[in-house]
Design goal:
By secondary structure, this protein is α/β, with parallel strands linked by helices. The protein contains 29 helices and 13 strands. The strands form 4 sheets. A 5-stranded parallel β-sheet has the order 3-6-7-8-9. A hairpin with a 2-residue loop joins strand 1 and strand 2. Helix 1 crosses helix 7. The longest helix has about 45 residues. About 40% of the residues are buried. GO terms for molecular function: AMP deaminase activity; metal ion binding. This is AMP deaminase. Pathway: Purine metabolism; IMP biosynthesis via salvage pathway; IMP from AMP: step 1/1.
Length: about 800
């Protein structure tokens, strides 16, 4: 990656990290010191030390590229299919179950004939359940179980009924399969940890601790500073202090941070930053790290090979089934205790705990009745306002509706026709047309766009009305998506000016920026010449405002409330290209076909990573990647999401990929799910995997996606919760757990989360929970934590056991060699 210097020119000694490799130590100069690594994390994680050379060789080593290319080629050939060709087996019919039971009984009776003492021993074992020996055995098992958890996390816990599995082989697969599967799972977790650390995104603290134990040296915690302690005490109010001044008031470019004097240029699809702005000959490139393309492709091939490995699939499927069964047993034994714990908490219930809508689009965040009333009000209040220019002729709002032969009285919810119905199922094109009121794109441009003739005035007003409703509810918060298309350089400035000019801000709202994957459309219309031009339009303004905030003052202020990037479009579109080392670079991508999903995600991630390191050096907030992923399309979208994203939206296809689902569980990757949205587009409600994911312990939350298309009430998030609770019979504890998950995976600041969840929320286990704020019983939090620890212990113990066996086998050989010498 580094360029050669001309003869006679001495290479400057740079304190920065070497570009293109993920294995070099992080620089302390550029990022203001290692202690800042976790300061802006939205879901706190801990950095992981460089791991020792543990043996993770598997039977697939050397074949990753061939396996991955074969799988990707198969997905291209079968592009008409909407899902991957491998999935969980369907539930067996009653006849098959009955036949299997009879077969098993015949086998048992046959065994008893040859070994008559089996039945006798079984009866004896059954009769001695209350003996002192059994009690002693259970006590030993309890002590072993407690050894799995760090000592500082063992606080006096309200006792609850735990399910333990005895015996050496607890996973139900042969040890060789367990070993191979454990190595594959650990290898995949190392890959994700590497990319999360590089991009300053969060990684599950519990998982990081177990991975660290596999290294050749323990993690030096003192080298890193934990998240700063907040001044919040356990008795602090639940509501964070409200800012006295509006963040967009008193915008003074002279009071902004100074110009760094750097310049930036995009090379091979990634922005590079140089030290001099005027004299490029004397300029030195800053070694801001980002993932090397060759290394990313190699890691992608490893992941693709892992998810179709037979023994690994069997192991992960069995573990997922075990997690489901274990949760059902936990509910049978502890449901009443959880309910009793909730009843003991004064004042707090599901209605007054914090909930975050982690996946909602700004252009459809209102319900259809709200939009209808606003349009009618605008027609009465601003009939003479010029809102549109058609072929050089200005049109007022009244003239626009007169051209459609409509009056305010004629309008109704049915006339707007913006609600999804049965005709939108598997028809994303029809769903997109629902964004146009009365089927007219001109009305969409006038009322729900930020960039139009009136500079997004109406859209700003309606968003502020939604914000007022949220502030009135107090306990509901949203993360709205705003679009940047990448067609021109001034899109960011126009968006920021819209927010500042119309004062579109609320303490209950944070922004994500979504980038629609529509390069092929813009390229066909001659709006973009190549893919790199699109990337430049998206990222160059962000680098410019980071280097010199006064150059884009509105954008600098607006970015303080932006938490991340999203990648959106119809995932079911067939992809005609495999992303590999032979793929064209962005500057050379001039094809009519759209780049594949993983291509978009890699270059978004690479530029975001460079930007995060540059912003961290100035103590500015950093960003995370939270794309739409796994709603439809091929399974490798979820592989890219696993490697590069902090959280994802949808994740429906995880139900067909047991390996990935298990990995998402172990890494505790946030999944924002929208069952009502999926019900109208891709998957009927009763088939939605959310209750299954929740029971297994995946980090899932409920979100609305598009209230304008899918919801009817003024509180769409509560509507989402209420339908889910009725259909799936969720308990109060389940719903409060979903709400707590939504806050944890959201992009709100550490200080705000400390108020909402408690000052210790970044810790592990039940110590992180404050039932007075979350209404989630300590029993449920302890169960989730202990179950995750047991799963991580299972796979790491298998990897460690093989290392010990290897050392024991090599020891006699070493003695023989030494004696011979």
């Amino acid at each position: 990656m580094s360029s050669k210097l001309p003869a006679g020119k001495q290479k400057p000694t740079s304190p920065f990290r070497k570009r293109g490799s993920l294995q070099y130590a992080a620089s302390t100069d550029l990022r203001g010191g290692r202690h800042l690594l976790t300061f802006q994390y939205s879901l706190p994680g801990i950095p992981v030390a460089k791991h020792g050379p543990i043996d993770l060789r598997t039977s697939m080593d050397g074949k990753y590229k061939e396996i991955a290319e074969e799988l990707l080629s198969r997905s291209l050939a079968e592009s008409e299919m909407r899902s991957a060709p491998y999935e969980f087996p369907e539930d067996s019919p009653i006849e098959q179950l009955e036949e299997r039971r009879q077969r098993l009984e015949r086998q048992i009776s046959q065994d008893v004939k040859y070994e008559p003492d089996i039945l006798l021993r079984a009866k004896q074992d059954f009769l001695k359940t209350d003996s002192a020996t059994d009690l002693e055995y259970l006590k030993e098992q309890s002590e072993v179980r407690l050894d799995l958890y760090p000592e500082h996390e063992l606080i006096p816990e309200r006792e609850y009924q735990r399910v333990t599995i005895s015996g050496e082989e607890k996973c139900g697969v042969p040890f060789t399969d367990l070993l191979d599967a454990a190595k594959c799972v650990v290898k995949a977790l190392f890959i994700r940890e590497k990319y999360m650390a590089l991009s300053m995104q969060s990684f599950c603290r519990t998982t990081a601790r177990y991975l660290t134990e596999l290294g050749d040296r323990p993690l030096d915690i003192s080298a890193y500073q934990e998240m700063p302690e907040t001044s919040i005490t356990a008795d602090a109010p639940v509501h964070p202090p409200v800012s006295e001044t509006h963040p967009y008031e008193g915008l003074d470019p002279t009071s902004m941070p100074p110009d760094m004097g750097y310049s930036c240029k995009m090379i091979d699809g990634v922005v590079h930053v140089f030290t001099h702005k005027s004299n490029m000959e004397k300029a030195t490139e800053l070694d801001l790290p980002y993932p090397d393309l060759q290394e990313y492709i190699a890691d992608m091939n490893v992941m693709m090979a892992l998810i179709i490995n037979g023994p690994v699939k069997s192991f992960c499927y069995r573990r997922l089934q075990y997690l489901s069964s274990k949760f059902q047993m936990h509910i049978l034994l502890n449901e009443m205790k959880e309910l009793a714990a909730q009843k003991k908490v004064p004042h707090r219930d599901f209605y007054n705990i914090r909930k975050v809508d982690t996946h909602i689009h700004a252009s459809s965040c209102m319900n259809q009745k709200h939009l209808l009333r606003f349009i009618k009000r605008a027609m009465k209040k601003y009939p003479k306002e010029i809102v549109h220019v058609e072929k050089g002729r200005e049109q007022t709002l009244m003239e626009v509706f007169e051209s459609m032969n409509l009056t305010a009285f004629d309008l109704s919810v049915d006339t707007l026709d913006m609600h999804a119905d049965r005709n939108t199922f598997h028809r994303f094109d029809k769903f997109n047309s629902k964004y146009n009121p009365i089927g007219e794109s001109i009305l969409r441009e006038i009322f729900i766009k930020t960039d139009n003739h009136i500079e997004g005035k109406y859209f700003g007003h309606i968003i502020k009305e939604v914000m007022e409703d949220l502030e009135e509810s107090k306990y509901q918060n949203v993360e709205l998506r705003l679009s940047i298309y990448g067609r021109s350089r001034d899109e960011w400035d126009k968006l920021a000016l819209w927010a500042v000019k119309h004062r579109v801000y609320s303490d209950n709202v944070r922004w994500l920026v979504q980038v629609p994957r529509l390069f092929d459309v813009y390229h066909t219309k001659k709006q973009l010449s190549n893919f790199q031009e699109m990337l430049e339009n998206i990222f160059m303004p962000l680098f410019e405002v980071t280097i010199q905030p006064s150059s884009h003052p509105e954008l600098h202020v607006f970015l303080q409330h932006v938490v991340g990037f999203d990648s959106v479009d119809d995932e079911s579109k067939p992809e005609h290209h495999i992303f590999n080392l032979d793929s064209p670079l962005p500057a050379n991508w001039i094809e009519e076909d759209n780049p594949p999903y993983s291509y978009y995600l890699y270059y978004t991630f690479a530029n975001m990573t460079v930007l995060n390191h540059l912003r961290r050096s100035r103590n500015f907030n950093t960003f995370v990647l939270r794309p739409h992923c796994g709603e439809a399309g091929p399974i490798h979208h979820l592989v890219s999401g696993f490697m590069l994203s902090e959280n994802i939206s949808h994740g429906l296809l995880l139900r067909k990929a047991p390996v990935l689902q298990y990995l998402y569980y172990l890494a505790q990757i946030g999944i924002a799910m929208s069952p009502l949205s999926n019900n109208s587009l891709f998957l009927s409600y009763h088939r939605n995997p959310l209750p299954e994911y929740l029971s297994r312990g995946l980090m899932v939350s409920l979100s609305t996606d598009d209230p304008l298309q899918f919801h009817f009430t003024k509180e769409p998030l509560m509507e989402e919760y209420s339908i889910a609770a009725q259909v799936w019979k969720l308990s109060s504890c389940d719903m409060c757990e979903l709400a707590r998950n939504s806050v944890l995976m959201s992009g709100f600041s550490h200080k705000v989360k400390s108020n909402w969840l408690g000052p210790n929320y970044i810790k592990e286990g039940q110590e992180s929970n404050d039932i007075r704020r979350t209404n989630v019983p300590d029993i449920r939090v302890a169960y989730r934590f202990e179950t995750l620890c047991e799963e991580l212990n299972l796979i790491t113990q298998a990897v460690r056991s093989e290392e010990l066996e290897t050392i024991e086998e090599e020891a006699p050989c070493m003695k023989i060699v030494q004696s011979a010498q």
